[in-house]
Amino acid sequence: MRKETLLILLILLLICSMTLLCALLIKPQFELEKISKDLRKQISEGNCEVYTNFYESEFDKLGIKSQRVVLPVSAEESNETIYLEGHTFLVVYNEDGYCKLDQEIIDCVRYLD
Question: For the chain, which residues make up each domain, given as ranges?
């Protein structure tokens, strides 16, 4: 082979290697993350329960599994009624990974292939 041909093949190999490396390093958003961020744009106020109810309802409509997490902080009893104060958020998940939706904060983890 001529030197020019070898050089062209080497450059093409280098480009293919870099493309593969970039594809591995720069993962596109996966479906749950994209949906979560799109829903986040639709709500802008309320307490943790308002956000959690909204997210839970929307993911339920899409048939995506979710788990509500309630963290009790304190409880008071008045007239035989217990009032719980705490924090709530939602975790949505599928076979690709999961996202924690905590009011305006969205934290997603994609499972390794």
Answer: 28-110
